[in-house]
């Protein structure tokens, strides 16, 4: 009798975000090890570090599968500093793991770092400045993956993509660890890959800052109103880097 070997179903990894619902208020702080210097400023842990890592591993696998077809050309992975640096580092290292473990395909990468300024305290502004792109003409005919921490209004990413398109790259893909579900109005940009969709809170941790504080926090947390007031800077005269 002929035996039929059943092929395992292909595991499909979502490029769209894992949705954190509005009704989820986050985990109580006392279930986590948190730095003493921030404990009084935080309301809850919205996404624990471990879950962030698991989702990045899945995104790396999906990006590898989608984009390896461009080889032997290099994929320019472009980190949007400062907020994107930890996501960038973990994502690149997880794509490297895919490269190490696969014998049938690979995705060569080169790394670029840029800065975008757009925020005052916890409010997005429509003034966007891009810093750090040297030799822009080298982007011509290249494949770019922009690696961003969070998309809120979408203004920063629309401006950045528009600027990069002037230099005629072959493709631009955007991966954002978080996208925000805005209560007031719609976001004007949808990334190609997103880790999590978060409620309309100002989130900090895992390199996402509030006026340069909280980057040294592992988990993604929601701030208390008192914390927002404590670290506020005088409006308008200091534009923080992303
Ligand atoms: N630490 C946080 N930074 C945030 C948050 N929401 C947005 N941002 C920063 O702004 C830009 C993008 O904003 P956009 O309105 O132009 O889309 C993003 O890169 C962040 O650096 C937040 O909740 N926490
Ligand atoms: Mg950013």
TrEMBL record:
Catalytic reactions of this protein: IMP + diphosphate = hypoxanthine + 5-phospho-alpha-D-ribose 1-diphosphate
A molecular function (GO) term: hypoxanthine phosphoribosyltransferase activity
Keywords for the protein's UniProt record, in alphabetical order: Cytoplasm, Glycosyltransferase, Magnesium, Metal-binding, Nucleotide-binding, Purine salvage, Transferase
EC number of this enzyme: 2.4.2.8
Cofactor: Mg(2+)
Subcellular localization, as worded in the UniProt entry: Cytoplasm
Pathway annotation from the record: Purine metabolism; IMP biosynthesis via salvage pathway; IMP from hypoxanthine: step 1/1
Sections of the chain in a coiled coil: none
Family assignment from sequence similarity: Belongs to the purine/pyrimidine phosphoribosyltransferase family.
Name listed for the protein in its UniProt record: Hypoxanthine phosphoribosyltransferase
């Amino acid at each position: 009798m002929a035996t039929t070997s059943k092929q395992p179903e292909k595991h499909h990894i979502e490029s769209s975000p894992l949705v954190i619902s509005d009704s989820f208020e986050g985990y109580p702080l006392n279930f986590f090890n948190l730095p003493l210097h921030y404990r009084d400023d935080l309301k809850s842990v919205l996404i624990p570090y471990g879950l962030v890592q698991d989702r990045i591993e899945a995104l790396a696998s999906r990006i590898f599968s989608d984009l390896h077809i461009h080889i032997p050309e290099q994929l320019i992975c472009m980190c949007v500093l400062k907020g994107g640096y930890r996501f960038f580092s973990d994502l690149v290292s997880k794509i490297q793991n895919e490269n190490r473990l696969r014998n049938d395909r690979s995705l060569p990468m080169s790394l670029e770092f840029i800065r975008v300024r757009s925020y005052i305290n916890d409010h997005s502004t429509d003034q966007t400045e891009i810093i750090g792109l040297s030799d822009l003409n080298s982007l011509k005919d290249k494949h770019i993956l922009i690696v961003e921490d969070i998309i809120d209004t979408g203004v920063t990413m629309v401006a950045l993509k528009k600027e990069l398109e002037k230099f005629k790259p072959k493709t631009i893909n955007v991966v954002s660890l978080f996208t925000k579900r805005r209560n007031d109005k719609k976001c004007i940009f949808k990334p190609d890959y997103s880790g999590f969709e978060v409620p309309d809170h100002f989130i900090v941790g895992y390199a996402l800052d509030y006026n340069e504080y909280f980057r040294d926090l592992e988990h993604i947390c929601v701030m208390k109103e008192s914390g927002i007031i404590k670290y506020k800077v005088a409006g308008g005269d200091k534009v923080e880097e992303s």
